[in-house]
Design a protein that fits this description.
By secondary structure, the protein is an alpha/beta fold. The protein contains 15 helices and 20 strands. The strands form four sheets. A nine-stranded mixed sheet has the order 2-1-3-4-11-10-9-6-7, with helices on both faces. Strand 10 and strand 11 form a beta hairpin. It binds xanthosine-5'-monophosphate.
Length: 517
């Protein structure tokens, strides 16, 4: 079950809090390896994991609810340090013989806490007026035997409790969120003073141990990797190349729906610079042909996805020695599939190669499946990937086809590609590239009237979309300065033939989406 054991690790049991992933990221930022598992993980499995410490996450339930999630109480008496956060603390209190009071209303938002008992958990934290973030309904009425109150806030007589002898601690507030400024200190006190971890989890150590693992696993076999030029597949490719060199074969399919200069840049970086065996498939014409006359966005997606698999499979079949397929699966996809509330067992298939490993009898290699996106970027830097790839905005698999409303034609693609390239140039030049999640052009299937010199024009409209977001689930339009908008508009109208009007999309998601199709 644990295929990549790191020396000192923390186990996080997930009770469904929206912050569980944040706990994991905070712990890893402190250079300690951790994994998230469902709350009901069996005791034998917990033992086999050999955690240095366990964190019980928060969650939306009350311990009094019917069917509330309970972890095995025996994990509290294994001698392993435990930190319960919010629901995790209430569960700890209840399972060890304390009582939890059902509250009539929730306490949500900032609170100020005073520390009564400056135990190890609060080392180097101010004693009074500590700002913390609360989000809970129930509260502790009676402490379990052996526990004492460590801190109080206006609404929580027990803002933290602990039994230092047993290495058990609970906090009602959320140390993992930015609104708890001393949260990092508290978590690090737990990691370094209470669990006695050392800060050894670094991207350098990750790269080294992954290279070793891959070499051992692959032996003299060959590996295929679908390279898209995005961050994840690029990091996978370079990482595997470091491990197995010429046994890695990357396949890059140019579907003709890419941005300006993208195909050349992928060739330059991976083939010329990293000297990776890159099989370049120019399939622009086939894609264009199959998309002819197709207007419906879901049909476009299907056609593009299926054709990609078809072509990829053709190329892969030529590599008769290949036994493995490398994919850029990331940790959030893995957690989603185990978390008790998540859409169970729906591991996302990447780059549309779903089903292919079975058909071709390839085994999967997913070297990034333990990493969060920001860690993948750090690994990319560690491996010497150019900053342009590391910080690249997400780009949809179906590419420009879903940014061309209506027919996908060579002429429309050319217009969109030029407009898009101007947008990116100006966004980069203005220093906004890193502040926006995505910025791109959409070509609208309408014509409007304009004048150029003495002539009346009747040409197409480009919509500029630039959004800020943290995870693409929600997004808001970026407040780009007027001067940047003006330069983009001027340049597109002057330089892109066939466009005489530019509009700015000021819709948020929800109810709109980031892409137009
Ligand atoms: P929406 O438009 O749903 O987009 O707000 C959310 C994020 O997903 C990307 N996206 C796609 N990525 N294939 C992809 O690989 C697709 O069909 C697709 N559709 C949307 C979009 O760019 C944004 O980052």
């Amino acid at each position: 079950m644990f295929d990549h054991l790191h020396e000192e690790r923390i186990l996080i049991l997930d009770f469904g809090s929206q912050y569980t992933q944040l706990i994991a990221r905070r712990i890893r930022e402190s250079h300690v390896y951790c994994e998230i598992h469902p709350y009901n993980l069996a005791l034998e499995v917990i033992r086999a994991f050999e955690p240095r410490g366990i964190v019980l996450s928060g969650g939306p339930s009350s311990v009094h609810d019917e069917g509330a999630p309970f972890s095995d109480p025996a994990l509290l008496t294994m001698g392993v340090p435990v930190l319960g956060i919010c629901y995790g603390m209430q569960l700890m209190a209840q399972q060890l013989g304390g009582t939890v009071e059902k509250a009539d209303r929730r306490e949500y938002g900032p609170a100020v806490m005073d520390i009564d008992n400056p135990v190890e958990l609060f080392r180097d934290v101010e004693r009074e007026g500590v700002r913390v973030w609360m989000s809970h309904g129930d509260r502790i009425l009676e402490l379990p035997p052996g526990f004492s109150v460590l801190s109080r806030s206006g609404n929580s007589p027990v803002a933290a409790m602990g039994n230092p002898k047993a290495h058990l601690y609970g906090v009602q507030f959320h140390p993992e969120v930015a609104h708890t400024p001393c949260g990092k200190d508290i978590l690090e006190n737990f990691l370094f003073r209470i669990c006695r971890c050392r800060p050894t989890w670094t991207m350098k150590s990750f790269v080294e141990s992954t290279i070793e693992n891959v070499r051992e696993r692959v032996g003299s076999d060959h590996v295929i990797c679908a390279l898209s030029g995005g961050v994840d597949s690029s990091v996978v490719a370079v990482l595997l190349h470091k491990a197995i060199g010429p046994q890695l074969h990357c396949i890059f399919v140019n579907n003709g729906l890419l941005r300006k200069g993208e195909a050349e840049s992928v060739r330059r970086i991976f083939s010329d610079h990293f000297e990776i065996d890159l099989i370049y498939v120019d399939a622009s014409n086939i894609f264009l042909e199959r998309l002819r006359g197709v207007k419906d966005p879901e049909s476009k997606r299907k056609i593009i996805g299926n054709l990609f698999v078809e072509l990829f499979e053709q190329e892969a079949a030529r590599l008769a020695d290949a036994r493995y397929l490398a994919q850029g699966t990331l940790y959030p996809d893995v957690i989603e599939s185990v978390s008790f509330k998540g859409p169970s067992a729906t591991i996302k298939t990447h780059h549309n190669v779903g089903g292919l490993p079975e058909r071709m009898k390839l085994r999967l290699i997913e070297p990034l499946r333990e990493l969060f996106k920001d860690e993948v970027r750090l690994v990319g830097r560690e491996l010497g990937l150019p900053e342009r790839i590391i910080m690249r905005h997400p780009f949809p698999g179906p590419g420009l086809a879903i940014r061309l409303i209506g027919d996908v034609t060579a002429e429309n693609l050319e217009i969109l590609r030029e407009a898009d390239s101007i947008i990116l140039e100006e966004i980069e030049a203005s220093g906004w590239y890193e502040h926006v999640w995505q910025a791109f052009a959409v070509l609208l299937p309408v014509r409007s009237v304009g004048v150029m010199g003495d002539e009346r024009t009747y040409e197409q409209v480009v919509a500029l979309r630039a959004v800020e977001s943290v995870d693409a689930m929600t997004a808001d339009w970026a407040r780009l300065p007027y001067e940047v908008l003006q330069r983009i508009s001027n340049r597109i109208i002057n330089e892109v033939k066939g466009v005489n009007r530019v509009v700015y999309d000021i819709s948020s998601k929800p109810p709109s989406t980031i892409e137009w199709e």
